Amino acid sequence: MSNEVLAYSTILLVSVFISSVSQVLLKKSALKTYDSPIKEYLNPLVIFAYALFLGTTLLSVLAYRGIPLSLGPVLEATGYIYVTVFGVLIFKERITRGKLLALALIVAGIAVYAAGL
Asked: Which long-range contacts (CB under 8 A, 24 or more apart) does 101-105 make?
């Protein structure tokens, strides 16, 4: 893998990580109760989360300028790992056997793709 592809891959991984953080912010906001539906959607946490989503979209577009299209979905699959870790650490969610198996398949898929590079 060339240095250029590695740099753009890093940009995409950072984008996926930030997107996962944004999902956590939206979930935290959804767990709160609000006085009105307007406040539910127009509060600082939600606005910031959607601003992060916009930023990650721009980072993804930039990243796809330097990586093969076949690599993008493989790197974006890491988001499932980030979200699961955040769920366990922040929301005290439990990892079931099914989730663990799914994560193992994702990691195995990434490893198979990486082995072919």
From this structure: none
The tokens describing 2, both together, are 């060339």
pLDDT tens-digit map of 62-75: 999 999 999 999 99
State the number of CA atoms in the 13 A half-sphere of 92 facing the CB: 0
Reported pTM:
0.90
CB-count burial class (<10 Å; 0-12, 13-18, 19+) for 104: exposed
Spatial separation of the C-alpha atoms in residues 39 and 35, rounded to whole Å = 7
Sign of CA dihedral 65, 68, 70, 72: negative
Query: So where are the chain's domains?
Result: 3-116
**3 vs 70: CA distance, rounded Å:** 18
CB count in 10 Å sphere of residue 12: 23
